[in-house]
Amino acid sequence: MQLGPNTAANSAAMNQGPIEHQWTQPRFIMQKVRPISEMPLATYNQIENEYGDNLEKICGDHENLIKVILEDEENLISKHRQHIDDVVDIIKQDMSLL
User: Fold this and answer.
1) pLDDT for res 9
2) What pLDDT does residue 32 have?
3) What pTM does this model have?
4) d(CA 94, CA 98)
């Protein structure tokens, strides 16, 4: 049964004997998501005053926003993937003790 691409490395780590767990604070703290009603959203008139007919500025700001969203998504996926790997490693260690 193959568990992942690093199966040989994982098996070697599991055969080192019991590992003492050290409980620490989480590596990241979930931020509370604010309701939309509490977010500073611009009104149509404010957006129209800021951008007017300047499509280049609208497109540039849109592209920047998309980049930020994609970077945040990648960070979230990376942290989730690391968390899953950590949990799998703990389960493997616990199973080796059985």
Assistant:
1) 46
2) 65
3) 0.51
4) 7
